[in-house]
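Board notes (copied after class):
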Amino acid sequence: MATSPQTASKGAKTRGLVEPVEASAEPFRSLRVALELVPDSRRGNLMVFASAGPGEGKSTIAANYALVSAVNDRRVLLIDADLRHPKIHEIFGIPRTPGVTEVIYSRLEFHSLAQPIQGVPGLHVLTAGMAAPRAGDMTGSTAMQDLLTKASEEYDVVAIDTPPVLIGADATHLATHPAANVVFVVAKKQGARRVERALSKFHLVGANVLGFVVNWEGNLSEYGYG
């Protein structure tokens, strides 16, 4: 994948971002269109990107989905809700703090901390913020649900990166929001049993799993409905 030279931190090096108008972005444009075509009865505007385990490309896919979604004159917020091992600030080359942790702990307004991405009008990123103990308690808190509600009201699309499902309950907590949908990322190497275990956790909380993305060595190979 090509990298984008335009980030919120001028001159910062990005990792894994495509150029929205070039051919490298086509898989993510296809993903955006597929999600837009889901019937309104099944779709809110919070897209929770999840995977069974680490290293499946979930964070990169969430970042590029947010990037190409913003190109169509839409207001898009990308939230790094992986408070255990955040990656979004590294992908965009922007500061990790302040972010979600400060919104939850210090009751700061999230829109004042969301960082605009240079060269991509309409795209803002709310990073994870400072490291904090009991990350799972934070993602399952009323304050986090309030953050998601406000974000869904102020933005057209909200993409949320989450920790791996089999590591903690963070992703399932976030998926219980009324406007939330789950986009499940699967690497080709991932075993079916682990995927089934992860999906069962979403089913137990009544989450709306829209479909899955198959990630083949850093490239999207297909999208399917669940």
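Comment from the instructor: The chain has nine helices and eight strands. Strands lie at 46-51, 76-80, 115-116, 123-126, 157-161, 180-187, 209-216, 219-225.
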